[in-house]
Amino acid sequence: MFFLRRELRRLNRQLDEIIQTDTNAQLTTAASDKDAAAFAASVNAVLERNRQVLYEKERAETALKRAVTNISHDLRTPLTSALGYLQMLQQREQRDVASDEGTRYVAIIKERLEALSVLMNSLFEFARVIEGNTEINIQKVNVCNLLRDALSNSYAELEGFTVDAEIPETPVLFLCDEDALRRVLQNLIKNVCVHGRDYLRVRLDGGVIEIANKADGLAELDTDGIFERFYTADASRTSKNTGLGLAIAKELTERMGGRISAAVTGELLVIRVRL
Questions:
Q1: Beta carbons of 144 and 181 less than 8 angstroms apart
Q2: Residue 239 carries which DSSP code?
Q3: Could you read off the pLDDT of 127-141 as tens digits, one per residue?
């Protein structure tokens, strides 16, 4: 019993080390006891099965990322070309004084292609982010300036919104990547422009950036799932939205060592970014 208990303690230490270091090692037993050897063999079988499952998962994710990237590249080139030829056709029809119906059809085609171009650019950016091709350079950044820039760049899209900006006059420095955080803020405000209604509040309080807006259907909104890939509250996809904007914001925030969360407070959807 003494030697068996000592062997079990040794096996337990081995198992803890394997779990903590995530190695491909297996349990080894020096005891002649058949039960101890059988126990070690069973644990090794479980470890090997879990490693295979993890390997297959990683391989599938890598294949998916590669496929998304390839599709994005393949679609962007002909789409850009089609837009160019369509602009030429539009200019030619204007010179030839085309019929109103033909002009309307060309305008509709152009609108659809531009919408598709926006979606594909979003998909391409998401592919770059999840593949780790977006370099993160952590440094001290004045977040107040980035918030003001994000609001001013969205001025036209926020027409009709009451904007309540609570941004300190004195600089507030975050340790982050300036370009990544700029993209996060752009995506969050873009989400407000697409899905929000009437009111936007931007607040910087300590180490938390808060973007809050009114929106319809908040009672049914899945605040835990809105940062998932391809999530959209528009089940019919009529908004022509990929649902990738918030997923990109989450990915970039976490790559900078931060956290992003969402909650419904009264009639407001509140998204908080902590860095």
A1: no
A2: T
A3: 667 666 667 889 999
